[in-house]
Specification:
about 190 residues; alpha/beta; two-stranded antiparallel ribbon
Length: about 190
C-alpha cells in the first residue's frame, strides 16, 4: 500500500473548501493548536452556514443572526462536523483568521505571546459548547492532530488549547461540553501506537 504524504498543508482526509480569509504566516512557525466551537445559526447543527461564513457568502435573509456577523472576515483551518466529516478552509501552512484578540503563555519561550494566528492552527468543532460533542468528532479531531503533529515538529499535546483559554473575556468555546480528559486519552493512545 502506497503511503501518500502531502507536501502542502492540505489534509487528504478533509473536503477542501477554500476561504479567502487567510494570508501568509510571517515566520512559517506552527507551534499551537486552538480548538473552537461554532454553530450557525446558534444552537443549530448541519446546513451550509458555517461554510458560507468562512467563504464570505453568508445570506442575510436566511436567519436574523446572520446580519450581525456577515461583516466578519474569519476562517479556521479545519471544521469537524457532528458526523466527523472534516472540511478544510485554509492550508495549514497559511495563517487563518480564527483567534482574534488573544494571548497565550508559551512555557517554552517563558513569555506571553500575542498575534496567535501567526503561529497557530484553528480547528472548529461543530457545536454550541453545551451539547455533548460526538465520538465521531473526537475521533476526527485526534486524527487531525496526529497529522498536524507529524507535519509540525514544534506542535505536541502540551501545545493544544481552547479559544476560551486564549481569549477568556471574549470567548467560551469549545465550552463545558468538550471533554478534555477523553480527548487527551484518545490522543495519547493514538500517538503511542
Amino acid at each position: 500500500m502506497e503511503n501518500k504524504q502531502p507536501f502542502d498543508g492540505w489534509w487528504e482526509n478533509a473536503r477542501k473548501v477554500v476561504s479567502p480569509n487567510c494570508d501568509s504566516r510571517p515566520s512559517g512557525e506552527v507551534s499551537l493548536l486552538v480548538i473552537h466551537a461554532i454553530s450557525l445559526p446558534p444552537g443549530q447543527f448541519s446546513g451550509h452556514a458555517i461554510e458560507a461564513l468562512f467563504t464570505n457568502q453568508l445570506a442575510l435573509d436566511e436567519h436574523p443572526f446572520f446580519a450581525e456577523i456577515a461583516h466578519l472576515r474569519v476562517s479556521a483551518h479545519l471544521l469537524i462536523r457532528r458526523d466527523g466529516e472534516c472540511v478544510q478552509f485554509v492550508d495549514t501552512d497559511q495563517r487563518a483568521w480564527h483567534a482574534g484578540r488573544s494571548n497565550w503563555w508559551d512555557a517554552r519561550e517563558l513569555s506571553w505571546r500575542r498575534a496567535l494566528n501567526d503561529f497557530s492552527v484553528g480547528i472548529e468543532l461543530e457545536g454550541d459548547g453545551v451539547t455533548p460533542y460526538r465520538k465521531a468528532q473526537y475521533d476526527a479531531l485526534v486524527e487531525a492532530v496526529v497529522w498536524l503533529m507529524a507535519r509540525n515538529s514544534q506542535l505536541d499535546s502540551s501545545r493544544i488549547t481552547s479559544h476560551a483559554h486564549v481569549a477568556p473575556l471574549r470567548k467560551t468555546d469549545p465550552g463545558p461540553a468538550f471533554d478534555w480528559a477523553y480527548f487527551q486519552q484518545l490522543l495519547t493512545s493514538r500517538v503511542e501506537r
